[in-house]
Design brief:
Radius of gyration: 36 Å
Number of helices: 21
CATH architecture of the largest domain: Up-down Bundle
Number of domains: 3
Order of helices and strands: HHHHHEEEEHHHHHHHHHHEHHEHHHEEH
CATH topology of the largest domain: Methane Monooxygenase Hydroxylase, Chain G, domain 1
Mean pLDDT: 77
Strand order of the largest sheet: 5-8-7-6
Distance between the termini: 86 Å
Shape: elongated
CATH class of the largest domain: Mainly Alpha
Largest sheet: 4 strands, antiparallel
Number of strands: 8
Low-confidence stretches: none
Structural class: alpha+beta
Amino acid sequence: MAETYLMINDILEEHHARMQNLRKYYPFFVLNETTFSQYREGRYAHLDMGYITMASLRFFIHENQFNDRAVTYEQYENFLRELLRRDFELHEEEANERELTEYIFDKLKNEGRPFEFHFFDPEDKKQKIARVRLIESLVREGTVEYQITPEGIEFYLDTKEIKEESKISIQQLLLEKMITAKNFKGGMDVIRRINGEVKRLLEKKRQIVELLAQDVFQGAKQCREYMDTVTRWFDEEQKLFEKNKALVEQTLQKASLEVSGKQESSAFYRSLDEISQLETQLKKTIQRHGKLIREVTELQDTADQMIRQAKLRKLRNVFDFQGYLQKLKAQDDPAGMLYILEPLFAPRLEKTFSFKNLDNLLTDRTGQTEKGEPVQREETRLDFRYEDEKEEERIRHNFGRMFYELADQLEKKGQIELKEFNAILEIKYGETFLSNRDYYSFLVHLSQKTRYVIKDISRKPETLLEHLLEDSLTEEEKQRFAALVFRLEFLKQEELIIPRKDSEFTITNIRFIREDMENR
């Protein structure tokens, strides 16, 4: 019973954590199985997307973490085209190669959206979604740059893990990479995972002690397995702790020396503070790991003592019938059988029924008995949507309508300023339109680029706004504005006052110019 309880408890409580751990592997298998099956009628089916994915992650780790620089699409395209020619002997026309590399890169970043991994949480009784990205993008000075995510780094390192390897050692190798790459914030996340693993091992030790008190045989078996696997990890883990501690101290000392004698930015001091926090948390983790070593050492003594007590409780005064029979044969004394048979022929004890129970039978009211509450099984709603999904749908719809109105005005007039555009929208959608927060969020996303080519949005979307427009604009609208090209000119000297109920705020005026009208 105790072993069954532990098994069910592990299934319920650890399922969510296991699914969160599995989610970083999900994109690899999605990419590996479906990437080239439908593309160009299987023309490139001989390409191994699993190998391409791992090679791409290694390329981003080298550039982002080791060289501390972001990657542009042109840099990745050169790397991928060289890989395809070298490893797969792929020789295509330049246009076909460019189209193929764009297709592969869109699959790697999932067209800007996270990979969604659906699973059932038995504790909350709900279907949940775990999201993970391998590559993320940001716009810096008008250029789209790409970086590998922490989940991508963790997945690449975990693929070298073997079954009997220490989770703490794996996380410490990742921590060493984070420190070397100066990703101290990511290092804090790794330390938290190490603390979680230490806590899990301490909890496992406590469960074994409880199991020993309930079932000494199963408890002794699990204790031996626990001691055999955990104790042999400690030497390697301690060495890695000392190595990472020395690495953090060297980084902190080097950063402290750079401070003296010159003026540094606030970002530099923030980085110095992150290194100090990382050092403090690592020292606390080393102390917790030392506590784990002490408690595991004490577990063997506790288990031996509990097993010894269980053996003493098992000693009972029992009668050896076979031995006694041999003894009677040796003495040739059949009369001794009387002591064995006499209890078997003792008078049979009759069971009686108390007359007081008759009153209870007569006064019992079966209609007043408690009825159990009926249990209704609720089926999972396939059309259920989470709140963040509803928010995303609303934003996608609003952004699409706002962009449509802007494109419509540019097609009619050639150019328009933001103050005039505000007045048009206020007349068309009502006086409360300028209180819509999605409108100002739309303007912020729109200002990330200074030039838009509508036909490129469907072919190669670069920003989050373009990905949302790809889904929100209809095919008829895309065809209507396919030839539209416009740019943004920020009129910094002119600010617009936007009134609100309790206050007001200002935004910079923007002039939207259709390029073919500009050249007339």
